[in-house]
Amino acid sequence: MTLRLALLGDSIAWGQGAARQRDRLAPRLAEGLELRGWEVETRVLAVPGARSSGLDAQVTGVLGWRPSLVVIVIGANDLTHLEPVPRAVQALSEAVRRLRAAGAEVVVAPAPDLSAVPHVPVFLREAVRAAGEQLRTQQVTAVLAARGRVADPDQRASRAFATDPSLFSADRFHPSSAGYAVIADTLLPVLLDAAQQLGTRQE
After folding, report:
1. Which domain holds residue 86?
2. Which residues, other chains included, contact 51 with Cβ-Cβ below 8 Å and sequence gap of 6+?
3. Number of domains in the chain
4. What is the pLDDT of residue 79?
5. Quick check: pTM over 0.85?
6. Least-confidence region, from 64-68, 122-126, 184-188, 195-199
């Protein structure tokens, strides 16, 4: 069985900041699946700068390809642009529901803890952390209600970024190649579970 893996969302799903194409999220995830015996085709419809409101167009663009597995990375730009949380969460929920209705397994990496970003002033970090937690909590509830899966439930990636500046690229916002390795590692276990579910359906 060949997995059709699509990546939707923002600049992290797209791979901004990685030094090489192969260090971006899609190639890393495809390699992780292939090492465990899956054949994988990938498409990246993510758009740098995208907010949750942009997911509708991305979902429309990918449905004709009939993806079997979709990764959505979203939330950072909703936070930086002060997008109303209910609006962002509703847009994500609708995207997951549409993809699930089309038969795809959906894995969501919700909003990161932006207080780990180096250029966030110390006096703002607690407020930034609280805003991220509010969005993330509601995203998780909505994704699970829409029958999607949530990656990195204990925020291991955010904790790693908070303690290791090398995980950021030169712009001190997007991940470096090493940062993408950390993100891929937190996504891969959930992806493998989703792939296994797809394989079970085919038996």
Report:
1. 2-202
2. 10, 74, 77, 78, 81, 83, 88, 91
3. 1
4. 96
5. yes
6. 195-199
